[in-house]
Design brief:
- It is built from 1 helix and no strands.
- The longest helix is centred in the middle third of the chain and has 32 residues.
- The radius of gyration is 29 Å and the shape is rod-shaped.
Length: 64
């Protein structure tokens, strides 16, 4: 069975390489930029949780 397709030319191979390179750069930016943005805008020291100055009533409290 004969195929009508021709083997890829040298310019087609070069454009495939360029497309793969651009896709890899976009993928890396998609993975790293959100992490860098979160790291940049998050506080340098983690905020510690402080208990409220009033007592918290439990969920099992049966008061009306």
């Amino acid at each position: 069975m004969e195929s009508d397709s021709h083997p890829p030319s040298a310019s087609s191979h070069a454009s495939d390489w360029f497309a793969n390179f651009v896709g890899t750069v976009i993928a890396l930016m998609t993975l790293t930029l959100p992490l860098l943005t979160i790291a940049h805008y998050s506080p340098s020291q983690g905020a510690t949780w402080q208990s409220p100055p009033y007592p918290i009533q439990g969920l099992t409290n049966n008061q009306p």
